[in-house]
Design brief:
heterodimer, A: about 325 residues, alpha/beta, 7-stranded mixed beta sheet, B: about 280 residues, alpha+beta, Rossmann fold, 9 helices, about 30% helix, Nucleotidyltransferase family protein (chain A)
């Protein structure tokens, strides 16, 4: 088994550990970082460390890429702000774009793809209409998917901008309606923080709650190392005082505790004593998160499949899951 | 991976891994005269079985790596060296931010570079390969790398990829020993690689300032027409794979290029005419 993924987490946590790596070990770690979309983050972390020339070159390239992703992400947020300004509804930036706009350490070097925003559920129709009028269009105009999104998901079907080719996910809460926990989206909106341009981001605790929910209560853990690094940075900036209580309000205390335990185990995040030991199940999550080798390949197929199945199980009760898979299978 | 090779082409170092021995052996042979890369590669390319069993059953090569195009189709194992070439081009096209990348061939004479941009089929690769047999130094047949700080062109002299009639044309100019194995039935038809000559390899780290930009077009009657900098700018943004992502730096670099270097659109019926026309334009600079 390659140690590239272990090296990656250890060097992100303590960059000086990379000093003395030979070429092969550097190569494997950098390749794993790219596969996990952590190249820019790693390059930022390695600033100030004495690097071999070719590694320094790789880092410079990664930093230019990250700067460009940041610029496009902030521009896309501005485009959405302009499209929605007249509605007078709160528009909360989520995930990468929020970290970049809010000047948070999780945003340093981070790769940012789609724009994710949270708006009040009762404003959803108006937001959708305003975005369509401003040049966004549906990505997958499929009746079943569309109906599924609108009935059961926590977001509109994805929209893409016609000329800029960028996706926007419009959320009205942070987990699918079919998931067992039911976060309090109204509370998240009410406590969100306004940014200088009028857009908003979640309050510090809710940012962690959302990141943990996204990582552990939804999805198959693809990109897990990156999302866990976000959590490491978010906890590092705002601490854990009152975090468990806030998570409990959203029904997400277990996800946040697991995030804390794994962030501590992989990145050395400072967490309360109760979160400093991994459970047996946590170890499976760690195994899944580290399932990348020094060639950037997905490894541990069985573990990956298990988490893929779990992601569906989390989202839907069994009868509904069976119906969903049947509908998808027939096409 | 089971089989791997390091390649350094101009300023770019690759690591190519493969599930099979044959593509790596073919690369080894094509790039046998190149210096071995040192340090950490800029890019990783993986040639891997699309599904685990496809390593043996109807082997088909998926082109993957640091950067991936999800829609890229797998290739026949017999075309593994083409898969590697596509993989290397893709890494540069999608990942590179040190230079402005122009989809163009380039050659150098007296320390100055001639850049030829055009679609596949315009003849830019053949033209560069033929000029390289007439005292020019081959800098590359796929990408010209324009330095963001100085505006100089960097060489990327990978093996020239010749298709169909261009193979027969080049066999008249270069010895058989410089050619790789012939691949038939590729998505681009018949294909054969031509190893760059010793000069191109020995001097691949030498940059050259661009002195002339051509847009060659094979097939028409002989014609040469100067192109305004605005049109050249627009055409080169289309020929660049990273103009957008580079932002301001890309704009500044391309603006400087088209406002300081003359640009000519060239139509030609055959290679001999094109060569004469190019050298005439060059001598008139």
């Amino acid at each position: 088994m390659s140690r590239a993924a272990d090296d990656l987490t250890e060097v992100l946590a303590v960059p000086g550990r990379a000093v003395g790596f030979d070429d092969a070990r550097w190569t494997a770690m950098l390749c794993a970082a790219l596969a996990e979309r952590l190249a820019g983050t790693l390059a930022e972390r390695l600033a100030g460390v004495a690097l071999p020339d070719t590694v320094a070159t790789w880092c410079d390239n990664a930093l230019v890429q990250a700067a460009q992703e940041r610029r496009s992400a902030l521009w896309e947020a501005e485009m959405a702000r302009r499209a929605l300004a007249a509605l007078g509804v709160p528009v909360v930036l989520l995930k990468g774009t929020a970290y970049a706009a809010g000047g948070l350490s999780a945003g340093l070097g981070r790769s940012i793809g789609d724009l994710d925003i949270l708006v009040p559920r009762d404003a959803l129709d108006a937001v959708e209409a305003a975005l369509l009028a401003a040049g966004w269009e549906w990505v997958k105009p499929d009746p079943y998917d569309d109906a599924y999104y609108r009935r059961w998901m926590h977001e509109l079907p994805p929209l893409i901008h016609t000329s800029r080719d960028r996706m926007i996910d419009v959320h009205h809460t942070i987990l699918p309606l079919t998931a067992r926990p039911t976060p309090d989206a109204a509370l998240m909106l009410a406590d969100s923080i306004v940014l200088p341009d009028g857009l908003r981001m979640l309050c510090a605790h809710d940012r962690i709650v959302h990141a943990a929910a996204h990582l552990f209560a939804d999805g198959d853990l693809a990109g897990g190392l990156r999302n866990l690094w976000d959590i490491h940075c978010l906890i590092g900036e705002s601490g854990t005082d009152g975090l468990a209580a806030r998570a409990a309000m959203h029904g997400l205390e277990p996800a946040v505790a697991r995030a804390g335990r794994l962030a501590h185990a992989l990145y050395g995040t400072v967490v309360p004593e109760g979160w400093q030991r991994l459970t047996v199940v946590d170890r499976l999550f760690r195994r899944r998160m580290l399932a990348v080798d020094g060639w950037g390949r997905d490894v541990r197929r069985g573990t990956r499949l298990a988490f893929y199945v779990r992601s569906h199980w989390l989202r839907m009760p069994p009868a509904m899951l069976a119906r969903h898979l049947w509908t998808k299978w027939r096409r | 991976m089971r089989h791997a090779i390091g390649l350094k082409i101009g300023p770019v170092a690759f690591r190519v891994g493969s599930d099979w021995a044959a593509p790596i052996a073919a690369l080894q042979s094509l790039y046998r005269d190149y210096p071995a890369p040192v340090g950490v590669p800029d890019y990783t390319v993986r040639l891997e079985a699309e599904r685990p069993w496809r390593r043996w059953v109807r082997p088909s090569v998926a082109v993957r790596g640091d950067y991936i195009l999800p829609e890229a189709l797998p290739l026949d194992l017999a075309h593994g060296v083409l898969a590697a070439e596509i993989g290397m081009n893709l890494q540069l096209a999608l990942g590179e931010r040190r230079w402005l990348l122009l989809h163009a061939s380039s050659v150098e004479r007296d320390g100055r570079a001639l850049i030829m941009s055009g679609e596949s089929g315009s003849g830019k690769s053949t033209l560069a390969a033929v000029l390289a047999t007439r005292g020019w130094r081959l800098m590359g047949d796929e990408f010209a790398l324009i330095d963001l700080a100085t505006g100089a062109a960097r060489a990327f002299p990978r093996a020239t990829s010749l298709k169909n009639a261009a193979i027969d044309e080049m066999l008249r100019h270069a010895p058989e020993a410089r050619f790789g194995a012939e691949l038939t039935g590729t998505p681009k038809g018949r294909l054969r690689h031509l190893r760059p000559d010793a000069t191109a390899i020995a001097r691949m780290d030498e940059p050259a300032m661009p002195a002339l930009i051509l847009f060659p077009q094979y097939g028409g009657a002989e014609a040469a027409e100067g192109m305004g900098s605005a049109e050249a700018f627009v055409r080169l943004t289309q020929a660049s794979t990273n103009y957008g992502p580079l932002g301001r730096a890309g704009y500044d670099t391309l603006t400087r290029l088209v406002t300081t270097v003359p640009t000519v659109a060239v139509d030609y019926p055959d290679t001999a005419t094109a060569v004469a026309l190019v050298e005439q334009l060059w001598d008139a600079l």
